[in-house]
Amino acid sequence: MATDLTAAAAPSEAPGWVPLGNGTAATRSGPASPSVGRVVLRFVLANLIAVVLLIAGGLWASVGAAEDEALADARRTTDLLAAVLVQPLVSDGLTRGDPAAVVAVDAALRGRLADTAVLRLKVWTADGRVVYSDEARLIGRTHPLDETGRQTLRDGVTRAAVSDLARPENRFERSAGRLLEVYGQIDGPRGQPLLLETYSAYDEVTERRFEVWAEFAPISLVVLLTLVAVQLPLARRMVTQLRATQQERELLQARALDVSTEERRLIAGSLHDGIVQDVSASALLVARAADDLRATGAGRRERQAAEVLGQAAGALRESVGSLRSLLVEIHPPTLERAGLPGALADLAARLRPRGIEVRLGVPEDLETEPATAALLLGTVQEALRNVGKHARARCVDVTVQQRTGRLVLEVTDDGIGFDADPVVRRPRAGHLGLRLLADRATAAGATLAVRTAPGAGTSLRLEVPTP
């Protein structure tokens, strides 16, 4: 058998057999071609997922933008309070802790603070002493300023952040929940910097987030859904055109195969009715001339001529046999006329002149589908060709058996065999051999396997599922 083969990724069911092609597994595992509706549905789902992701990304971006805007609003409010309300009320008495000054400031601020979103207000000195707060228990207490407060006193830039309610100076605000803390700078009566700290509810940031998202989401949703709606007919049209192109390609392939088969039949018919008949007639004429010369009992020269004519007649008969074998290879006419057994007998006759005995074990009443018969015949043809070229065999057995759910073909020779594993892993470049058979079997939904070893001959098995 030939040693040029390609393994398929299918396990062998019997020990010793090396799988070459498993079309049954490929058929089972191959995905069905999706319908146009399914393709469009997948397209819609993919676009909807993209819409959801884009809206989620927009929400995330709007949350950041809303928070930045809410912080900016809080900073502006604190700056306004510092300039309009707090700064004019700061005096030496307040910074010294004079109770009368504190009461006066409290009386001036408390009513006005009630009209703002500020929940707590504190005025600090640079050393961390609270000179005023609307929470009287904080006035006069000293706490270390955090880094944000110290930075604001240094550069005068108003800053906002989420309040750290774990700090001791914030213990009276813990019941209010999450708060937004803003630091601003005001000038003391002697020009010294004082720190103004305000607290407001963080819910304003959350509300601002929703407002920004509510403005952004409908516009984005409408734009994205419009885009999907515009793409839907385009996608359906594209899929329909692809389907039509695929069907047209399959139809052209089928027509090309039919044309090829018809051309092979015409060529075979022309050779059979033309040159084969002429060579056959010439062989008969030359053989008859040789017999006539021998029958006359003429001299030595005539006998020599008769011998040469006899050799020529034998060569012509061998040429006729070769031509008939070629006709079987091009287009086996007996496959249509006499069925698979007759076509296999024609193939077997090609090896007998080489001294190779071919024994056929094929039921005479075997009936198969035309495609199955062509697959079996092509497999036997390639196998016998490989036997003649490589196997150095003296005998070949070709058997076809009808089993439950499958048709089994085996071609076994007593030749030299080979080591299948290295050949399967590294097929020789430039050779087709069993690789073509494996591809053809896989395409037909059949399985192909080989069993061989050096000096132990070779067996080739083809299993074709049957209804």
From TrEMBL:
Primary enzyme class: transferase
GO-annotated molecular function: ATP binding; phosphorelay sensor kinase activity; protein dimerization activity
Gene Ontology cellular-component annotations: membrane
Keywords: ATP-binding, Kinase, Membrane, Nucleotide-binding, Phosphoprotein, Transferase, Transmembrane, Transmembrane helix, Two-component regulatory system
Residue intervals of the Signal transduction histidine kinase subgroup 3 dimerisation and phosphoacceptor domain: 263-335
Known catalytic reactions: ATP + protein L-histidine = ADP + protein N-phospho-L-histidine
Keyword Flavoprotein appears in the UniProt entry: no
This enzyme's EC code(s): 2.7.13.3
Species for this entry: Geodermatophilus poikilotrophus
Protein name: histidine kinase
Span of domain Histidine kinase/HSP90-like ATPase: 379-466
Keyword Ubl conjugation: no
Transmembrane segments: 39-61, 216-235
